[in-house]
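Service request form, structural biology core

Requester: graduate student, group of Dr. S.
Request type: structure prediction, single chain
Budget code: on file
Notes: please return the result as structure tokens.

Sequence provided:
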Amino acid sequence: MPALNLPANTPPGREGPGRRQWPAERRPEAPEIDWPALVRRCLDGDHGAWTELVVSQQRRVYALCYRFTGSPHDAEDLTQDVFIKLYGNLHSFDAARGGFQTWVTTLTRNLLVDHFRRSRQQRVTDSMDAGWDQGSESPRSEPIVDQRSTPLEQAMRNDLEHMVQAALAKVSPELREAVILRDLQDMDYKQIAEVLGIPQGTVKSRISRGRAELARLLERTKGQVM
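Core staff response, request fulfilled:
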């Protein structure tokens, strides 16, 4: 097995003098990647393969952690934990049982559940074992800025990002995770059902209810701002 090259390709250790800025936006998975072959190369000790795998997944993993926690600091630490766990469990990936992206998302979600169970910061729920009820004042990560945007446009986007994240934090946990996986992680109903371990019909229902709850919260926030 190749050495885990954390400094170059995964979040720096908590003891390090600096912390890597992880983008909060999702990067689409490259369709040309042969995931089973890439995993085999990693298991065979190919350092370049591990680098390719990490680079292709780090933004998506960070975005998932951030959306669930609302905290850039927690999301950064959890992203590091995900890659350590992912590396240690690469041998268990089975392409016959599902896609690599779904496998990574399931691993990430399970780690998030474990994290909040241990921290005792959240209430236990039927769907996730732990609720993710963060305050609306949680700090947000730095967005990717379009250099062609005006300061006013950037400020408006930043305000919208904050409003959406604050509203997401108030959506009930079982609905929140469904909305995040569908609308922010762009997973299909079958993949979400596999990650959450529930029927596709239940997935669709939770997404619909979650979107309605989020829209209601955003409308209320908009009314307060106006």
